[in-house]
């Protein structure tokens, strides 16, 4: 069998080597037997090319008038490098398309990760309790979206992104087991546990349908079992962490 150009490319081989190193590191540290102490990076916007691994979406894709952009912002003396998710939400319906009855959303997510010699690249976040995000929010109603290798491909697990300090940089922790299974924006019953060993993509959406500008900055996203001293110092936190718990039933009513 002749190897294809894609298999021989440096990118494919490099990804395979990185995956081999990751799996070897897990075996050496016996992280399958013990709770990992370090963070597991999912998304880091530390260079302009990091945006190539993401895509934006909005109702403009089906004829609506919302706008969404994801721009790279380099680090300064006061801010980390980050992606700025911004645009404008419109709830105007497209003319001559009566089948479209609802607009007013914008989102971004990571692309499906490229394959390696070990198969399809997926995140295994099962050993971790929290999803952590370093953000600066405008206070609007954003949701974190997680796609897995679900039996239903259109299922998305969602959780409200609660910002405690709008307009300032902060670290938000969300428990993985508090995400709610949805499909096309609606809560699905019965609820099933997220396939945490097979996470495909992560992202953020704005679905409050409030017309106007929005602006959310995201520096990084990672899986963790708690914040270390460096992260606590970065966030300016003192004392115990306060993790705000989502209430699926209330979110269901708001939808």
Quick structural summary:
Helices cover 15% and strands 33% of the residues. The chain is of the alpha+beta class.
Give an overview of the whole structure.
The protein is an alpha+beta fold. The chain contains four helices and 13 strands. Residues 1-10 and 238-255 have low confidence and may be disordered.
Helix-strand pattern: HHEEEEEEEEEEEEEHH
From the helix content, strand content and strand pairing, which structural class follows?
alpha+beta
Compute the separation of the termini in Å: 53 Å
Strand content: 25-35%
Question: What level of helicity do the residues show?
Answer: 10-25%
Q: Please outline the major beta sheet.
A: 7 strands, antiparallel
Arithmetic mean pLDDT: 84
Query: What integer value in Å does the Rg equal?
Result: 19 Å
The parts where pLDDT drops under 50 for at least 5 residues are 1-10, 238-255
What's the arrangement of secondary structure elements?
Blueprint: H1 5-8, H2 10-29, E1 40-44, E2 54-58, E3 67-73, E4 82-89, E5 106-110, E6 130-136, E7 142-148, E8 155-160, E9 169-175, E10 180-183, E11 186-187, E12 199-206, E13 212-224, H3 229-235, H4 248-254
Characteristics:
alpha+beta, 6-stranded antiparallel sheet, 4 helices, 15% helix, 33% strand, globular, disordered N terminus, disordered C terminus
